[in-house]
Specification:
By secondary structure, the protein is of the alpha/beta class. Helices cover 36% and strands 23% of the residues. The chain has a seven-stranded mixed beta sheet, sandwiched between helices. Strand 6 and strand 7 form a beta hairpin. It is globular, with a radius of gyration of 24 Å. The structure holds NADP nicotinamide-adenine-dinucleotide phosphate (NAP). NADP nicotinamide-adenine-dinucleotide phosphate binds next to helix 7.
């Protein structure tokens, strides 16, 4: 059995204790063990603060961008190996694994390019300088400088490569060292990614560390200059925010949590034609890609009531035809859920939805004697039906609910309490304007599906240029969004004083 080591303090270290077993979710075979007992987490944080931080801050944005390019090259060089681990430890089909690994590489490259654009500066100059009084000598300028702490990243099980890379890209480019903690269930892939980055020696000492296994008291060790970025369940996010040290030291916390993403078929889209076909294709992809274990997956499908029966039959036909099985088999289109706990949680969610809606397809019955499989599952609801669970319970699997609407759908969408993404399928500009006005305040991103937009990856793909996050239930956080991502890792400070001196100080941010 492979014991997964952590990379802390510049060394690979194995934790002690019983640890946690990792499985192949398609076969239930144990594949590795992760333990973190005995590892000195306080020392690791200090190593990041005292060794990684100064090394990164001494570099320009362009030089930090080169580091990110090196990380991307390292992952690219080990891509086949990483895809294999996605299949074996995460239950991914090859296509799902590519989504994770290629997403990681693409995001690192996007931030490497941003580093090149930001150039020789080491901090950001924020806006124009300002004359502050009657005298032009009295001058002000905002700048944003890297914090002197560590960025602790706690990631979810569904994107072990992309989750680690997208958070690390922003922090490293901003000039903050990272301690990354992947979810234990799928940590094999994250650990291998770290191995290849370490082997290539692309980063300065202390810039990136990895903790594999239980987090223990890691978040409780954070101080005023540290930041914590978390992706996972709303419950854990709530616990982290309420930690006494987080409150006492105002530790910056970003939370990406649950989201009941909706897809809305506009009244003009009908139930045939290119736009309708795109809508069907994207709903099916989002429900089944990574077995529905995506924070951006479509959970609720809102359709004009007169088309509900057609949409139901079409979705049931497409979802029912999809081959479910061991993703090691090439013709399989959907693999299992990540582990036994997720399967139990999703089955419980299916029961709750079943108490309110009508099961059209799938359900919580076992699919195979072994493995954590669930069939694609579709529920339908009557117009105006009492549907509390459907707007409140994120069922993190290949499960989707069809909700007919008879009035403007924004209020129904907003019942989700805040989401990451909502997709709209309509070409009616006036309808879209009303829908966006009603839906935008509750979301981090709105995707407008159009059949003529070539090569669009659909609503479920998070792009490095656009923000990822959402209000309310979605955690209230924000990541990515190009340069916006750096703000979380930087301290904005106002410089105020004599104009030549303030301008001289700001110039260090944008030399040349
Ligand atoms: P989770 O328990 O919140 O775990 C997420 C991450 O937090 C993991 O790395 C986990 O480590 C860590 N963690 C758990 N408890 C912690 C604590 N007290 N202090 C510090 N770190 C802690 O979520 P999950 O069990 O993986 O997934 C549960 C549900 O979360 C899913 O069903 C889904 O609803 C939601 N989810 C959302 C997203 C998203 O992208 N928004 C992604 C995945 C899951 P260990 O793995 O070592 O426990």
């Amino acid at each position: 059995m492979q014991h997964l080591a952590s990379f802390l303090g510049g060394r690979w270290l194995e934790g002690q204790g019983a640890g946690q077993q990792l499985f192949n979710p398609a076969t239930e075979e144990p594949v590795a063990l992760a333990a973190s007992e005995g590892l000195d987490l306080a020392a690791a944080l200090d190593y990041g603060r005292n060794t990684g931080g100064p090394a990164l801050r001494a570099l320009s944005f362009a030089e930090r961008g080169v580091l990110l390019k090196g990380m991307a090259d390292a992952l690219q060089g080990a891509r086949d190996d990483l895809l294999e681990l996605g299949i074996r430890n995460c239950g991914n089909t090859r296509s799902d694994a590519k989504f994770d690994v290629d997403g990681a590489i693409a995001t690192l490259l996007a931030y490497a390019e941003l580093g090149t654009q930001l150039g020789a500066g080491r901090f950001l100059v924020d806006g124009e300088g300002l004359q502050l009084g009657r005298s032009p000598r009295f001058h002000g300028q905002h700048v944003s400088v890297p914090r002197h702490g560590v960025a602790v990243h706690i990631n979810a099980f569904n994107f072990p490569a992309w989750g680690m890379a997208e958070k690390a890209a922003a922090a490293l480019l901003a000039g903050m060292p990272v301690l990354s903690k992947p979810a234990t269930a799928t940590a094999m892939l994250a650990q291998r990614a770290m191995q290849v980055i370490v082997e290539r020696k692309v980063l300065p000492e202390g810039a990136l560390q990895l903790l594999v296994g239980a987090p223990r008291d890691l978040p409780a060790l954070l101080g005023a200059q540290d930041v914590l970025a978390f992706t996972g369940s709303g419950d854990t996010g709530e616990r982290l925010r309420a930690l006494p040290n987080v409150i006492r030291h105002s530790v910056r916390v970003n939370v990406e949590a649950d989201s009941l993403n909706a897809a809305v078929l506009g009244p003009d889209a009908g139930a045939s034609g290119d736009l309708y076909e795109l809508f069907l294709k994207e709903v099916v992809r989002d429900v089944t890609q990574k077995a529905g274990q995506k924070c951006t997956a479509i959970r609720r499908v809102l359709v004009p009531a007169e088309h509900a029966a057609t949409v139901r039959d079409d979705l049931a036909g497409l979802l029912g035809n999809l081959k479910v099985g061991n993703p090691a088999d090439e013709d399989v289109r959907m693999g299992p859920l990540t582990n036994a706990a997720q399967l139990a949680d999703v089955r419980d969610g299916v029961e709750k939805l079943g108490a309110e809606g009508k099961l059209v397809l799938g359900g919580s019955n076992a699919v195979f004697p072994k493995g954590y499989f669930l069939s694609p599952t579709l529920f339908e609801f009557a117009p105006g039906a009492a549907a509390d669970a459907v707007h409140a319970r994120e069922v993190f699997g290949p499960v989707v609910s069809l909700l007919p609407y008879t009035t403007a759908p924004a209020a129904l969408v907003a019942k989700g309490g805040g989401g990451l993404v909502c997709s709209l399928y309509s070409e009616d500009a006036a309808w879209l304007e009303g829908a966006v006005a009603g839906i935008a305040p509750f979301h981090g991103r709105i995707y407008i599906g159009h059949p003529k937009v070539e090569l669009s990856p659909g609503p479920g793909t998070v792009l490095p240029q656009l923000v990822h996050g959402g209000p309310g239930r979605a955690g209230g956080g924000e990541e990515l969004g190009g340069q916006r991502a750096l703000a979380f890792y930087l301290q904005r400070v106002a410089l105020q004083g004599s104009r030549p001196l303030v301008q001289g100080l700001a110039k260090a941010g944008t030399p040349g």
